[in-house]
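Hi there,

I know you've been waiting on this one. I reran it after we fixed the sequence typo, so this is the corrected version. Both the input and the resulting structure follow.
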Amino acid sequence: MVGPKYCSTNIVRFLAILLFIWLISASAVEGRIRRYRWEAKYEYRSPDCFKKLVITINGKTPGPTILAEQGDTIIVELKNSLLTENLAIHWHGIRQIGTPWSDGTEGVTQCPVLPGDTFTYEFVVDRPGTYLYHAHYGMQREAGLYGSIRVSVPKGVSEPFSYDYDRSIILADWYHKSTYEQATDLSSDPFVWVGEPQSLLIQGKGKFNCSSLNSPTADICNLTNPECSPYVLTVIPGKTYRLRIGSLTSLSALSFEIEGHNMTVVEADGHYVDPFVVKNLFIYSGETYSVIIKADQDPSRNYWVTTNVVSRKPATPTGLAIFNYYPKHPRKSPSTFPTLGPLWNHTEPRLAQSLAIKAHRNFIHAPPLTSDRVIVLLNTQNRINNHVRWSINNVSFSFPSTPYLISLKENLAHVFDPTQPPESYDFARYDIYSIAKNTNATSSNAIYRLGFNTTVDIILQNANTMTANNSETHPWHLHGHDFWVLGYGKGKYDILNDPKNYNLVDPIMKNTVPVHPYGWTALRFRADNPGVWAFHCHIESHFYMGMGVVFEEGIDKVGRLPSSIMGCGETKGFRRP
């Protein structure tokens, strides 16, 4: 006969085993906590051989890559050592579900981090994929404060493609003027445009022609400086590589090519793509792609990696890197001439790539078949009191002194214009192919209030600028969400007929999308993430000049705000210990 002591001992052991299994499963779901301590400061660097002040993170630009697994919690302790400049960092593509105050958008979700202060961002990376981070204060991003976020699938979960090695690179353009000089030029009367960038960078490295300077000196521009030696991507013959490519250009749309190698596109903005092969990959600021490359060419030589400006008349040299077959010497330049890329003003192949990006057949997230609200956003260039601005439906966006998330949650309704912005424009009379007869616009900090859990369609409509026969490419990025890309089109959007041709079967989900010259792009998203979210052109100068809007949804469902995001505008007395 079994005694009660024996039974109770077995019960305790059984419960202990159950607790252990629960802890293991819980940790698998909840993920790990990954901590980073960063210091942002200005340092002299020569990324394209020209010496200037750049913003580094822990001495690096691009900054450290965040490596995580789906479900992990990221904690970044950020010290602002810029001495005389505020700071904020946006985690581009991370939806911030439950943590809208960590989105890192100064003026929308937080007050800026003051010089000398340390601010802690904490958020969960809820989806695998390729993401970015970058400054979101003024025009700081183009000073070099950016980096990559790589989120892998949990152990035991397979992806719809295979590879041997995983690599990340960031493409950027580079100006020699400081962000302060550029901001002053853009705000001046008469207007001074920033012009085309001096260089294109591949993973923080480029090459400027020092001899083009009026009085070149080795201490200012030095072509032998190892900081500007080409970036080298070393591969092992016969192996397959996943190359995660992100663009954080401040102005330029780019083409990207690896000499002699095709690329298979398999991921876009964290979502699996129905694979398609390209020679040139077109990529716009704020976008990320994963491509699969096989190291199957002649291993006795190296190959050029090139990036070129498209959609604007190029005045910037080709960006160069080296695709190095091991054990060939990594600094051995290829014997061939670098390719110049596709024609800069040929829109058709860029539109064709946009249309080719569809969801992988085994990973389709079906969109709602109808929407509750349609907002049409006409992108135009205008003047306000003789200052050049960018506008949406003739309204140029400006930030209030108190961030929206705080003012809405703390019932400070008077700090921004309560009138909702216009939801469309005069379809019948506005000619998108001509300079507007009246280019004057107004400025406002009003926002769109969305019904929580409703489905919203956004139509981005492009038009002529204030220069004849000119329409620019605008990459638009939505914070806090992914959206379905329902379609692209040429000319003026037809609100009655174009929705009939929407892709409701296998549309890709993204967080950044281009609207092509004289064209339109249709998006759909669910307003199901409580918070306040920016939606804006990802070109630094355009957003600085007013090309953006803000959406609010479910503000009553947002939890108690951390006092660390407060301290500016009307929240100066709100900081709690």
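Quick highlight: Residues 14-29 have pLDDT under 50 and may be disordered.

Best,
R. S.
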